[in-house]
Specification:
By secondary structure, the protein is an alpha/beta fold. It has eleven helices and eleven strands. It binds glutamic acid (GLU).
Length: 324
């Protein structure tokens, strides 16, 4: 039997400074990989250049290094999965898209957001207005566009149920045509959509375990469907709880006072941040300063998983910020 070595990743979008919730996800992804003796990859998801900021990439790298994470491949070093910036990986997405197009799994869509909203509000429109009504579905993948218009491209879903066995949350079933609808894989501005890019990158970079925030759980069946259609291998998925503020709201990148760079520049000790993040997920019994190496030494793959499962069954993990 061949044992495939574990490969994990952290894949931030450089659209703003990392907040503590982002950092906690990075920490858990790193712990998971290192406990399995695997390789850790940093991939920067800067596909949407209008929202990405170059200075955020540097900040993210500094923040991650500051709390004591390391990686074997990433934008600041080499590796077999090079390049590690999504903005430089368009050729891979193009090849996957062409494969889907040749297999007639995608079709061009010329509907505007307004068209989609109007169709949903029509008397017999779909109950869930975020589901595409299928107006352009009859178009073949080689249909010539109406003059002067560039369409988006949608993936044609079937009425099959996708089952994902999440390592933390257990089985998730999603029937794509009822719950998601035909989804965009290439936008009208020619940018490849997150779902396609992330699925292709995880497969081509040989990622065996995707550890990420629970907000992406719903996206996973779409990624699994794309991987199946492309004949690419599936990783295991681990969706970990999101950190919330005292009002129960998810942290967001706009939430400046939870920014990691700010804590770093204020001269806070990284060990206090690690202790705070680990305690907030129940990885250690009480909050106390410790290094990422000390945290690693206190855990095993089995105990990490057990504690993440326990944390996922709690309502939320509130962050009040690390103790001063
Ligand atoms: N780039 C996404 C984010 O920053 C994460 C994508 C993923 O982990 O699949 O939220």
């Amino acid at each position: 039997m061949t044992i495939i070595p574990s490969r994990g990743r952290y894949a931030p979008s450089p659209t703003g400074p990392l907040h503590l919730g982002n950092l906690r996800t990075a920490l858990v992804a790193w712990l998971h990989t290192r406990l399995a003796g695997g390789q850790f990859i940093l991939r920067i998801e800067d596909l949407d250049q209008t929202r990405s900021r170059a200075e955020c990439i540097e900040q993210i790298i500094e923040d991650l290094r500051w709390i004591g994470l390391d990686w074997d491949e990433g934008p600041d070093m080499c590796g077999p999965g090079v390049p590690y910036l999504q903005s430089q990986r368009t050729a891979f997405y193009e090849a996957a898209f062409t494969q889907l197009r040749n297999a007639r799994r995608v079709y061009p869509c010329y509907c505007s957001r307004k068209d989609v909203a109007l169709a949903a509000n029509a008397p017999h429109g779909r109950e869930n207005s975020s589901i595409y009504p299928g107006t352009c579905r009859p178009l073949a993948s080689d249909t010539a566009p109406p003059s002067g218009r560039v369409g988006a491209w949608r993936y044609r879903v079937h009425n099959n149920t996708i089952e994902v066995l999440d390592q933390i949350r257990g089985p998730l079933l999603q029937t794509l045509d009822v719950e998601v609808g035909d989804f965009v894989v290439r936008r009208a501005d020619r940018l490849y959509a997150y779902q396609l890019a992330v699925a292709v990158d995880d497969a081509l970079m040989g990622i065996t375990d995707v550890v990420r925030g629970a907000d992406l759980l719903d996206s996973t069946p779409r990624q699994v469907e794309l991987l199946n259609s492309l004949g690419l291998p599936l990783p295991r998925y681990w969706h970990i709880p999101l950190m919330t503020d005292a009002l129960g709201r998810r942290l967001s990148k706009r939430d400046g006072d939870q920014g990691v760079t700010a804590l770093r520049l204020q001269g806070r000790a990284p060990e206090c941040v690690v202790g705070h993040l680990a305690a907030s997920l129940g990885l250690i019994p009480r909050e106390e300063p410790l290094s990422t190496g000390d945290l690693l030494a206190q855990l095993s793959s089995a105990s990490l998983r057990e504690r993440l499962i326990a944390a996922a069954s709690e309502p939320s993990q509130v962050s009040h910020g690390p103790a001063a």
